[in-house]
Specification:
It is built from three helices and 23 strands. With 396 residues, it is mostly beta strands.
């Protein structure tokens, strides 16, 4: 037997010896995907995780030269809007493990718009992770339903960057690879890479439950040389999902009847997924308007935000842009009819003074029976003169 063949046989034998020590219940797989995601790939390492390590963390690794890379768990895809309303696809990679201080690289390969593309993020184990190929990047976070050893990052790429137009376009040949330096570590689809870190995928060994007598094992399916499924993932674009149902109690308002309030009702058809909705209002200077809240938490129950329309000097529209932390985007508009302007105030002419009964109530007025003619002052003076004259006659 040649040395390479002997080494391969020895590695496989070591892996098989560990099988009996790996209860299936201890395997740390990917948590279920969120209701807003579509699972495109899920890792299938078999009884042993990357590096030949037992899923029981107390067991030693069969591979003494384990690189300490990231153990890939799943890839979820969904469609969304960016903060400015641009449609995009989000690639969520779920993973675990990685030795502290090790520089990690994860690459997502796919074909979109007829061209092969690679999206990459890098960072030391535990993050922060960064990307120069994603239009936006978020994470790492612990995904819902997962233990705190599982992380998820989101690589968000606009349709334009992917080279696709939208609904009906296909993303094909999707695969994910984790690496440490130039050495490959884990793959989806597929198992994981052995010591050479280049091309040799480890065989998919059975997953056995040692709690039964005799142990019960799930045998790998011989669909390829590794005993697993190497079919790449695929996803067909359907357009960003409507994550929030936003409605207006009125799309037009007539302020000739006085100030008005429009209810913005926020609901969702999602089952238990909570999101924070942000509302940004825009109105011309000719319309006085305000919102009673700038954010709303939308979950199983609907929420209402009130748009107050106080006044307007000309017809126009108030726009409210709604976004959420999950990629929702919608623009609402309320048309406003302004009350008519008040009549112009007359200026009056010489010999025809402005009277209180001849002008609108908002105009300054002059009463012709009082200050306009000076009559009160003249009457008072004349009365005073008469009084003095009478007083003198009586004194004489």
């Amino acid at each position: 037997m040649t040395k390479p063949a002997l080494a391969a046989a020895t590695t496989l034998a070591t892996l098989l010896l560990l099988i009996a020590c790996v209860p299936a219940a201890m395997a740390h797989g990917a948590p279920e995907g969120r209701e807003i995601d579509t699972r495109v790939l899920e890792d299938d390492d078999g009884g042993l995780a990357p590096g030949g390590c037992s899923h029981d963390t107390e067991q030693a690794c069969a591979n003494p030269q384990n690189l300490g890379g990231l153990d890939l768990l799943a890839l979820d895809v969904r469609e969304m809007h960016t903060a400015n309303g641009t449609p995009a696809a989000s690639f969520r990679v779920l993973f675990q493990g990685g030795n502290a201080g090790v520089a990690q690289t994860v690459s997502i390969s796919l074909t979109a718009g007829g061209a092969a593309q690679t999206l990459t993020f890098t960072g030391n184990t535990g993050g922060p992770y960064n990307s120069t190929t994603c239009s936006a990047f978020a994470g790492a976070v612990v995904p819902p339903g997962a233990d705190d050893h599982v992380s998820a990052v989101d690589c968000i790429v606009t349709y334009a960057a992917l080279g696709v137009n939208g609904t009906g376009d296909a993303l094909t040949a999707i695969s994910v690879l984790s690496s440490v330096g130039a050495k490959k570590y884990d793959a989806m689809p597929g198992t994981w890479y052995t010591n050479d870190g280049q091309s040799n995928l480890a065989p998919r060994v059975p997953v056995c439950d040692s709690s039964t007598t005799p142990p019960t094992c799930e045998q790998p399916q011989p669909s390829d040389a590794t005993g697993g499924d190497l079919t790449p993932g695929a996803y067909t674009l359907a357009g960003p999902a409507k994550l929030v149902d936003a409605t207006l109690s009125a799309a037009t308002v007539d302020l000739r009847q006085g100030p008005a309030i429009v209810d913005i009702v926020l609901g969702t058809s999602l089952n238990g997924t909570t999101q924070v909705v942000t509302l940004n209002m825009s109105a011309p200077t000719s319309i006085q308007a305000s919102l009673d809240a700038a954010t709303a938490i939308v979950g199983n129950e609907s929420r209402t935000v009130k748009l107050h329309l106080v006044g307007a000097t000309k017809d126009g529209a108030v726009t409210v842009i709604l976004t959420s932390d999950l990629g929702f985007y919608q623009v609402l508009s309320v048309a406003v009819t302004a009350p008519p302007p008040p009549p112009a105030c007359p200026t009056g002419t010489a010999g025809a003074p402005v009277t209180a009964t001849s002008v609108p109530t908002n105009c300054p007025t002059t009463d012709t029976d009082t200050k306009a003619s000076g009559a009160p002052e003249m009457v008072f003076v004349a009365g005073l003169v008469c009084t003095l004259a009478l007083t003198r006659r009586r004194a004489a």
